[in-house]
């Protein structure tokens, strides 16, 4: 193994290696977090939503025209982006553009009808038939709308959102709120629904003496306020231009949204062990509730709603229009790449992964965060970052781990560290510019669980054995512990399990376009098996990250929200008494049928 490299400046070759390593991890698993999620509007006269093509209830053209007259932009009519390759479906579409950009997260986020995981563009009927629009036109399948809403509002202001919410409530429509379409639970799409697209709400402002509404004038923050459509590449750049750093999501090109489901579901980051989760850095929200009211929620105004918004999940309490984050002074960042090209024996895999997991609490306590990728049959790769740490401290901390890896395998093992002036410098050089290709544009579903500090400290070898025993590739996020563990678990609505966690493990499956429903169900059964193994490992109260999770949770209330569920449900009933907003496995969703179209509990 190579020694730790103490560099006077950033080595371009090593930066390229770090970029390659991170993009490999992101190719296996996209770090996108739910940004915005679908809501549902309930009419007192019917327990079921009105869906497109139901002429008995769907608004007329005149009704939609009346709505359009209230908006800042024309109504939108989303279509599958792949329809450009089907002249009969989209005569003016540019198929070449679609083919070149199908794995470009930024491009996909700019298309109202595109989801980052394309299986959520499709719809599987109970009889197994599939409504979809495949990029692979040689399959001979006609292009259909699938689960993409046929009409919607391109919101640029809170007034637009208020008009859309009131319209949807009046006509009992099923509502989907979408920003970038980064979503592992299909909450950014809905067959026959009405879309509120927040992607173009791009306002960003910085205030070095920000005071939350209703707060004392002497309580000020260096704060960044961002609109619902802002993506992390935009937020990072503006924060850096003011000499500040902000805790945010990590993805190639930065296409994940910064002011929606990411923070509403908790918001983990490689910087979290140093600065906390997104919810720990959120100072204030503005949002539109189910009544059409525009509210500000913070520690002094609607404090109960502020509590719920910080971890109670997106699409449940209202449509967020902006988030204000506390920012931090930029500090130098040390980055590490540690890899083993392949495991020579299963015993080697067990030894290396066990030692890495044993070492994780030490790294978390020192502020190290990052992402690891491994499987019993292939290799091990860890990319880590630590802000505000010296080279000497990095060397002292990591040398034992590097040495262990070097002495544990006959295969090639590589370890090196790099220094950057700030996290933003690393982000720009390693994760690329907007438009960087990533693992989007694929069919994918995942399962996940949080890994507690206690489990790692008392039984790290069992954790390693269990994860390797799954027999598939997985990612291990080092995004908790440190500053995350120092926050009062009851100060925010987030599942308290996060405050005892150190890691978050996730694995998934993907499949090709055109795969039939029977084969997809078999893949889902395999994922359910993985989920059972993870749940047995961590226990029923182990918890999972709401934004990167499974569609097949048997007790989502405990898994995602823990002991906070009852209070979250009470707050939801206070601000959304008619049940306008409901999402897959979100607070109150057990009151609805499987498709979230009809209410079954009142």
UniProtKB/TrEMBL annotation:
Assigned keywords, A-Z: Oxidoreductase
Domain FAD-binding PCMH-type residue range list: 145-330
SUPFAM superfamilies the UniProt entry points to: FAD-binding/transporter-associated domain-like
Lineage summary: Eukaryota, Fungi, Dikarya, Basidiomycota, Agaricomycotina
Top-level taxon of origin: Eukaryota
Keyword Oxidoreductase tagged: yes
Name under which the protein is recorded: FAD-binding domain-containing protein
Organism: Gymnopus androsaceus JB14
GO molecular-function terms, A-Z: FAD binding; oxidoreductase activity
Protein family membership: Belongs to the oxygen-dependent FAD-linked oxidoreductase family.
